[in-house]
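Q&A log
Question type: sequence-to-structure
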Amino acid sequence: MRHAPPVFEKILIANRGEIALRVIRAAREMGIRTVAVHSTADSDAMHVRMADEAICIGPPPGSESYLNIAAIIAACEISGAQAIHPGYGFLSENAGFARALQDHGITFIGPTAEHIRVMGDKITAKETMKQLGVPCVPGSDGGVADYPAAEQAAEAIGYPVIVKATAGGGGRGMKLAATAAELETAFRTARTEAKAAFGNDEVYIEKYLGKPRHIEVQVFGDGKGHAVHLGERDCSLQRRHQKVLEEAPGPVITPEMRAEIGKTCAEAVASINYAGAGTIEFLYEDGAFYFIEMNTRLQVEHPVTEAVFGVDLVREQIRVAAGLPLSFAQDDLRMNGHAIEVRINAERLPDFAPCPGRITQYHVPGGLGVRMDSALYDGYSVPPHYDSLIGKLIVHGRDREEAVARLNRAMGELIIDGIETTTPLFRALLQEPDIRNGAYDIHWLEHWLETGMG
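Response status: OK
Response body:
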């Protein structure tokens, strides 16, 4: 049997942990050699062991290693890698990085710098999506310069409202004003937080939805005016605006809703010649979708989409970056069953404090429909310098009931000793009727935690 030549001979992964391993696996199946970059703290990391080559790019702090654009480009030139996959986090949505690679003749496995820039600013993204026919949350026309402008915008929208940083993310620079009396404090606090976190104190105001779900649509474009959608994921279980559990399809989304919002999203990204993977995120309430942001990268929760559609999204990213067409059309995509992912963090409950340390025993659950994406191994020391995510447990079943039962079984098999993790959280959640029935919204988990984990 003859194999087609690889689209790239060698790619560099500008990331670490489980996502670096994920890219290495896809590349290896495509016959592409890989280069791992790493900090001195990650010299014994699994992605360093698994890649064909490894290059140290700096000391432990991310700002001096995984965010060091000059060092990453130098590693690419030294190794002869033709393309860079950014993973998620770090430089994955940095327009300056994508532009710098282009200037050096290196392919960025992702969208153009301009698309990253446009979607990275929430006000510009919202204006763009409005023009493309994507439904948006009622809000201010752009940023609000001062408190009188904020007051005027809030009155026009109607309380409750939420004040958000235009350059925000991860829940920082977001404050709720339930009434006019609360607006001034919310406005000034959001600006202060935004300035400290992002170096930009511009904020905007949106209608606050009472009990919405967080629904995101996976899109994929070829950069040449063609795009598809791969259904939706429900990411409503969140703590401090950080996703904890994701599933596909969404428990409350009908096939008709999926087809309509998916078509809208695919047409929107096709019309701007978007290239690669992207996620259009919505708040969903009472049958209506409201755009909140677009992520111009692979998502942490991409495996649930892979499970229900049977596609390799990383492989597709690499193909599109090489100028090849999508390997499937919309009519080829069929949803099969239900998938759930839980994010396992090195954190100590109940306060979710980071808990780095040495893994003394690690056992991965197995069996039909179970996948574990992690870079852990026996004896590995989880460093204190990076995000606390250490693994993702993904299950797939014929329907949601089977997926929940499978996740419950798999959680019972998972062993991570030596450090504390968030696994007890999921074991407790899976006993809750609301979780088993899919009857939750973006506020459910916070309320549950406030009552002492149920």
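Response note: The chain has a mean pLDDT of 95.
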